[in-house]
Amino acid sequence: MKQLDYIIVGSGIAGIAFCENLEANSKSYVVFDSGEQSATGIAGGVVNPMVLKRLNPVWKASQFMNKARPFYEGLQNKLNTQFLADQPLLRIFATAEEQNDWVVASDSPAMEQFLQPEIINNTNTNINAPLGYGAVRSTFRIDTPSLLQAYRKYLQNRGKLISEEFIYDELQEYADHYLYKNYSARYVIFAEGSAVLKNPWFTLDCIIPKKGEYLIIKSQELKCEATLKGPYFLIPGGENTYKVGATFAHGDFSYNKTDIGRQTLEEAVLKMIKCTYEIVDQSCGMRPTVKDRRPLLGSINDRGIYFLNGLGTRGLLMSPLLSQWLYQHIENKSPLPPEVDIKRFDN
Ligand SMILES: Cc1cc2nc3c(=O)[nH]c(=O)nc-3n(C[C@H](O)[C@H](O)[C@H](O)COP(=O)(O)OP(=O)(O)OC[C@H]3O[C@@H](n4cnc5c(N)ncnc54)[C@H](O)[C@@H]3O)c2cc1C
Fold it and tell me: Which is the CATH superfamily of the domain at 207-290?
């Protein structure tokens, strides 16, 4: 029997960020991950504090940004793997009105930290941006497959990763600990993304998975080094490849790649670029979206089982700070911000 402080289920970005809190506080833990269907592995990896459609910063944008970058830089050093890229994020202006709205928004004190006021002219003849771009400040990109691979290797080397499915029915509750197979722990943290819907310990009806698809294209001519935001994101991925997406499909809970997804994204590509390209792949993932579009932290049973979930979007931006809030809530009884507290759905 191995006595631990924590059992974690899921090593997507939520699980990783929580583990980092445990490491910083010398807590013992193991992580179960089946290695299937990770939203983190599919994500474009853009860390962006802005809702570009409405030109609003996301909730608590500065706090999340201030925590995120040092978190990933520290993790790069610790894992000795590079996965953070300073890739500019440029919004393509489709109309003069959009251009004007940008200039007005960037002038407001709340926005100047996020929006660069100058309009950037497009000099790449293979990109369709006659009205130029607006640049979002301080964004960066995480190569999520590299991060996941490096973190899992790190855990594996320390005997902390159990690469198998966590069977919920085998988790047993005792007065002051939980028992799962050979592991006894005071706390269990479920960070299993949209798979939480299969979890019998999760008794709330507030997660609605939202499928997203990407098209992976390759173009020798495009030579674009910035992430572009047109009808969808176009994200450079190295070796002349680009991810285009991701779609937001409602009511489709399958992991199938769809014709409609491909068609929608091909139309977007044709609007954004003017050179030849080939489609090399299509991928899809499931966003663990919450009804009110805010993350979901805390305990339902108040007896040692906690959730770190609801990262439908912006998981890479938010996980570093959310995981710290959850850790301090568990260990120091710090209250969670009511906007993310799971108790808001527990009535
Ligand atoms: C198409 C798409 C594009 C996106 N683009 C971006 C982006 O550019 N920027 C951004 O910040 N966010 C983006 N997101 C959102 C982001 O992916 C999520 O916010 C984040 O990855 C959620 O992380 P998570 O750790 O909660 O879940 P996941 O990454 O899904 O991790 C859950 C893990 O739990 C494991 N698991 C589940 N059940 C079990 C079980 N019973 N036993 C063992 N293991 C289990 C799974 O194998 C998985 O590894 C995107 C999402 C999608 C779908």
Answer: D-Amino Acid Oxidase, subunit A, domain 2 (3.30.9.10)
Any ligand 1 atom below 6 A from CB of 147: no
Residue 40 CB–ligand 1 contact under 6 Å: yes
Ligand 1 pocket mutation pick from 7, 8, 13 by most atoms within 8 angstroms of CB: 13
Q: Which fold has domain 2-48+145-206+292-345?
A: FAD/NAD(P)-binding domain (3.50.50)
Q: What is the pLDDT of residues 32-91, one digit of tens each?
A: 999 888 999 999 999 999 999 889 999 999 999 999 999 999 999 999 999 999 999 999
Cis previous bond, 246, omega within 30? yes
CA distance 34 to 11: 9
Among the listed residues 219, 226, 189, the one whose alpha carbon sits nearest the alpha carbon of residue 325: 189
Q: Alpha-carbon distance 121 to 132, whole Å? A: 5
Is the minimum distance from the CB of 217 to ligand 1 under 6 angstroms? no
CA-wise closest residue to 270 among 283, 279, 280: 279
Residues facing residue 120 across a β-bridge: 133
Q: pLDDT tens digits, residue range 137-189?
A: 989 999 999 999 999 999 999 999 999 999 999 999 999 999 999 999 999 99
pTM for this predicted structure: 0.97
Q: Would you tell me how many other CB atoms lie within 10 Å of the CB of residue 275?
A: 14
